[in-house]
């Protein structure tokens, strides 16, 4: 549901929960001037004479009544909590003692047209019973009882017609038929509809005094063809991101309907079939119909009147960095003809540039340069029918049915068909989100292709920006992307993996445990140590103070055994309740699984949620004061974020320090595709502080023992080229293994069509013999056990002495020769 101020009335109406109780009499003061004079909902029905529903207004005062910005609104007789008032905007004025005719929906029957109406809507009123209100405003009413409506000062007059009308003044009128209306012959307003109205044959009269079948024009035309106004779609869209007509009313905007949307943000797209040739001005626009499903069809040639708005997905707050979608709102639509050919879709071909800069400010008023910047290019086609040929999938279909494709497949391809993100200055401008319009795209993985033509309307949406609402989709051609399997760990190698298991809790279905366990055993080949991120407490997001996670770990380790893996032990520290971020009540934390048949954990008591670990000297080598222990847990850098957990392991007599990490998220950063350029990465400040503390810990270990083996693993929530990772590797004590891969393989996560990395393993630089692997089993696939790919490093830990390493490694290599199968 939309919640921006431009839609505040609609959002409030949709969100209001009411109880439709028995009606009570209204007590609003009777109107002294403008009134509802007659209502008729049987137009065009079987047996009707008139072809159209109508509401007739009257002015019983001695001065004109201006109705600009007013509306006539309709509510079904037996309104439910989900029912909404439908609105027809008014304009002009009602002269003293004159009438004002509001035409509503046409039916298939009847023989006689209304006189020329003074306002036209599209409401299909019920013939027998309903409620009509005259309102001094155009926002939909929210009242659902007679008393609530009487208390709304915007309601000038209200008529409940038909015995079942819940909302009415006093008692409702008699029930109407296709041949009867309810009329107020004396223009008396006693606040009792039954007393003020009588039923009889409908007698519509307009401002000029014309009645049905009457027309003083010498060449009578009871239903004249509407004429285009002086504005076209290009005038609405303009040459910047914000319409030059924002907030203004437009009349008779011509276009052909290219697509409709009957659910969610309902409405339809129109496109001008006579483009102006200016590459900056779009020829398409979305017509927002609110809670009413559109009544037009693709191919209808229409004239649209309404108010121009800019809808900002996610809310109108200044902190929301999203751009806007230009729309025509509160529309009235005249259909001139149907079955017209649609405009030919334009094949998308954005340039290599992405977005102009505004030194951190808004770009919304900058003139569009579609030949230089991809997002200017997309904006200049907003609302239009466009096409992507042989669309390659760069982001898998998510739970909302959204899939990322690229319009520039030549940009930074990965070896598996994605698009790699290699720097803030390389955003990959061809990326485009695709979602279901009248056609539903196939569920797809990275590397798949929608061969042939994919056509849809271009819009701007939340979570991803420019979006193709698909009207037709090319044939799904699977790319053959398969989950990877790591190779086996050697006898003299220590394998350390990291895996973000995405809020794993004891309350999850067994299927999630089984899939994650199968990956540990079959794809990661049962690493000796597994660093885990996002382990939740034993009752998940139930926020009752529970912080223990033993049941979660037990279910996971049992599932691993059931899949043929080792009986892992675990080490972790329960956090302070709700102090580590994540879902409230979930208490996510990091922890270790380890195979005691291959590696030993050095337990030193005293580690808890608030006690900091320190590095001590033991027999000339580095050791931990507590194991497992948390690194500076009270430091403000870890506020509402996971605290790193360090454990001391021994393998073949050598000590290895492993640190499990999960830095604070990127939540709150401005959107890459947003109005503020360049975007502010506000969350980075905290991660930089976290990186400084983690680096300080490593420096402390190395100060005691420069030959120590250190592995930093986990979800750092930042890229290999980021300042955060640069801070960690400053001074050369550790190496970011992601950065050692070929450029097109540096990813473990896919976001908005960009293959990128958030997860890292960093290894102390004195460890020279290692094999590193990102095991791609999740991020590129629509069917995911987690949104992160795990990764594993297999190391030959150092003895702490380079010469001794050569001797020991040589002996181990020799031993391996004699133990080959």
Instruction: Tell me the helix content.
Output: 10-25%
- Give the overall average pLDDT: 92
Q: Return the structural class.
A: alpha+beta
Question: Radius of gyration from the CA trace?
Answer: 34 Å
User: How large a portion of the residues is in β-strands, by DSSP E?
Assistant: 25-35%
Shape descriptor: elongated
Span between termini: 63 Å
Contiguous runs where pLDDT drops below 50 for at least 5 residues? 1-27, 215-222
How many H/I helical runs? 10
Note the main sheet: 7 strands, mixed
How many β-strand stretches? 41
Features:
single chain, 10 helices, six-stranded mixed sheet, 821 residues, seven-stranded mixed sheet
């Amino acid at each position: 549901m939309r919640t921006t101020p431009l839609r505040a009335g609609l959002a409030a109406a949709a969100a209001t929960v009411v109880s439709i109780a028995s009606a009570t009499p209204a007590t609003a003061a009777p109107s002294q001037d403008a009134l509802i004079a007659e209502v008729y909902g049987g137009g065009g029905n079987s047996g009707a004479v008139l072809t159209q529903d109508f509401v007739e207004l009257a002015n019983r005062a001695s001065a004109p009544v201006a109705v600009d910005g007013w509306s006539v609104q309709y509510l079904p007789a037996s309104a439910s909590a989900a029912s909404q008032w439908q609105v027809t905007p008014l304009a002009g004025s009602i002269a003293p003692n004159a009438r004002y005719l509001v035409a509503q929906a046409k039916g298939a029957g009847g023989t006689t047209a209304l006189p020329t109406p003074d306002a036209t809507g599209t409401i299909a009123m019920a013939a027998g019973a309903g409620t009509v209100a005259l309102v001094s405003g155009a926002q939909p009413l929210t009242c659902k009882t007679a008393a609530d409506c009487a208390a709304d000062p915007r309601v000038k007059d209200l008529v409940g017609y038909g015995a079942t009308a819940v909302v009415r003044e006093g008692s409702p009128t008699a029930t109407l038929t296709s041949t009867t209306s309810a009329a107020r012959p004396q223009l008396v307003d006693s606040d009792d509809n039954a007393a003020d109205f009588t039923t009889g044959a409908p007698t519509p009269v307009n401002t000029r005094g014309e009645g049905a079948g009457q027309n003083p024009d010498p060449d009578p035309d009871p239903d004249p063809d509407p004429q285009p106004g002086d504005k076209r779609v290009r005038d609405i869209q303009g040459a910047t991101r914000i319409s030059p007509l924002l907030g203004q009313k437009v009349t008779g905007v011509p276009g052909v309907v290219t697509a409709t949307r009957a659910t969610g943000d309902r409405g339809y797209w129109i496109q001008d079939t006579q483009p102006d040739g200016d590459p900056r001005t779009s020829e398409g626009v979305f017509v927002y119909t609110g809670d009413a499903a559109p009544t037009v069809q693709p191919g209808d040639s229409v004239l649209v009147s309404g108010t121009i708005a800019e809808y900002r997905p996610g809310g109108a707050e200044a902190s929301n960095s999203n751009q806007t979608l230009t729309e025509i709102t509160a529309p009235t639509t005249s259909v001139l003809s149907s079955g017209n050919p649609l405009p030919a879709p334009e094949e998308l071909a954005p340039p290599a540039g992405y977005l102009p800069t505004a030194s951190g400010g808004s770009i919304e008023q900058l003139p569009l340069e579609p030949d230089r910047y991809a997002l200017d290019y997309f904006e200049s086609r907003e609302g239009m029918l466009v096409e992507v040929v042989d669309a390659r999938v760069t982001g898998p279909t998510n739970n909302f049915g959204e899939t990322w494709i690229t319009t520039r497949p030549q940009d930074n391809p990965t070896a598996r068909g994605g698009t790699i993100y290699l720097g803030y200055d390389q955003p990959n401008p061809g990326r485009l989100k695709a979602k279901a319009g009248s056609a539903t795209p196939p569920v797809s993985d990275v590397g798949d292709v929608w061969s042939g033509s994919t056509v849809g309307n271009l819009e701007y949406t939340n979570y991803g920006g420019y979006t193709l609402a698909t009207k037709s989709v090319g044939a799904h051609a699977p790319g053959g992307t398969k989950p990877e399997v790591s190779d086996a760990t050697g006898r003299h190698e220590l394998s350390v993996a990291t895996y973000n298991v995405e809020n794993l809790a004891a309350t999850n279905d067994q299927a999630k445990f089984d899939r994650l366990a199968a990956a540990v055993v079959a794809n990661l080949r049962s690493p000796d140590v597994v660093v885990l991120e996002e382990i939740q407490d034993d009752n998940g997001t139930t926020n009752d103070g529970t912080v223990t996670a033993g049941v979660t770990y037990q279910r996971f380790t049992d599932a691993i055994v059931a899949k043929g893996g080792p009986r892992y032990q675990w080490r972790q520290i329960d956090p302070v309740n709700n102090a580590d971020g994540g879902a409230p009540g979930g208490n996510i934390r990091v922890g270790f699984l380890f195979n005691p048949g291959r590696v030993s954990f050095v337990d030193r008591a005293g580690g808890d949620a608030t006690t900091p670990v320190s590095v001590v000297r033991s027999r000339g080598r580095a050791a931990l004061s507590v194991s497992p222990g948390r690194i500076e847990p009270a430091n403000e850098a870890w506020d509402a974020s996971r605290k790193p957990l360090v454990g001391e392991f021994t393998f073949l007599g050598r000590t290895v320090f492993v640190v499990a990490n999960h830095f604070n998220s990127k939540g709150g950063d401005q959107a890459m595709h947003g109005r503020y350029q360049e975007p502010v990465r506000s969350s980075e400040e905290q991660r930089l502080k976290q990186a400084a503390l983690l680096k300080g810990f490593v420096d402390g270990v190395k100060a005691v023992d420069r030959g120590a083996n250190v592995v930093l693993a986990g979800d750092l929530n930042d890229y290999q080229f980021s300042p955060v990772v640069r801070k960690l590797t400053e001074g050369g004590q550790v190496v970011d293994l992601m950065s050692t891969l070929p450029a097109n393989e540096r990813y473990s996560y896919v976001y908005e069509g960009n293959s990128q990395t958030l997860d890292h393993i960093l290894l102390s630089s004195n460890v020279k013999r290692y094999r590193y692997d990102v095991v791609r089993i999740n991020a590129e696939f629509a069917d995911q056990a987690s949104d992160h790919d795990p990764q594993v490093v297999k190391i030959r830990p150092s003895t702490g002495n380079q010469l001794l390493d050569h001797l020991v490694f040589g002996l181990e290599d020799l031993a391996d020769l004699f133990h080959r199968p």
